[in-house]
Predict the 3D structure of the following.
Amino acid sequence: MKCPSCGSTQINKNGHCRGKQNYRCKSCGRQFIAARSTKGYSDDAKQICLKMYRDGIGFRAIERTTGVSHNTIINWVKQMNAQEQSEPDPPEAVSLQNCANSELQSSSLTEKDFFTQNYEFKSY
């Protein structure tokens, strides 16, 4: 067994905490547990829940199906939306925006006139 901090193999047992053996490194003095368990849900569970949300299933229905708390799912959706907003637009969208802006500027039309000339609007 090695110290996670310095990599030394000179370690001593140092009591128990919550039923797990503690160790102390002789070199750096760090206290640690031999095997740490990871907390939280797997990436597969997260992807399944997000796919269910994108398919239109409600948070509590996803909770009943998967056993994952609806609050956790809401936090995952917020993270997903924040990541999507921080990503830049694809090149096609940027070039179309630039094309529309250049046509609008070169013809000295207002934005309203530009759209009424190029798109048909139905009145109801």
Summary: The helical segments are 43-54, 59-66, 70-86, 91-106, 111-118. Strands lie at 11-17, 20-25, 31-33. The first helix runs from residue 43 to 54. The longest strand covers residues 11-17.
